[in-house]
Amino acid sequence: MTGVRSPQHRGDSSHDGESRKERIDRELMELLNELRVALPGVQFLFAFLLVVPFQQQGTRLTDFQRDVYFFTLLAAAVATGLLIAPAAQHRVLFRQHDKEALLRRSNRSASLGLAVLAVAIVGAVLLVTDVVFDRTLAWITAAVVGALLAWWWLAVPFWKRAHNEQDEPDD
């Protein structure tokens, strides 16, 4: 066998015989479908963070907790914007015949949105654990959650990507 692996050995969802346009259309739809999974989670986190200041609570937040809250709120807002951006751009640029550029921008936006979402998740864990328990446990818990997200969202896929052959784009 020469260096080309058959589709069943690639380990991906490559579709033989599809044109460049068909591949771009499919990849854009796959990306938008993936974002439909991520969006409810980030929107729920964002909504939770929006109502926190308006809840009656028996304790006052420390300066550290207020700073973590603000940073986490901003991260959730930015993640929400970045994860919604591909759908918004797709709608605004409908029938503009530039899906490949849209796909590249949307992929970057989604990737950055997921990274910022991880920051928001870690910040929320840090804040809640610090309020309910103590600062040491909060940092340990946030570090563990951050490490798990980095492992499953980055390390595993990048390792898999490095060890799988990629499809060459059609010209």
Automatic annotation (TrEMBL):
It holds the Pfam family DUF6328. The chain crosses the membrane at residues 37-56, 68-88, 109-131, 137-156. Signal peptide: none annotated. Keywords: Membrane, Transmembrane, Transmembrane helix. Coiled coil: none annotated. Residues 9-21 have a biased composition (Basic and acidic residues). The keyword Metal-binding does not apply. Residues 1-21 are annotated as: Disordered. It comes from the Bacteria. This is Uncharacterized protein.
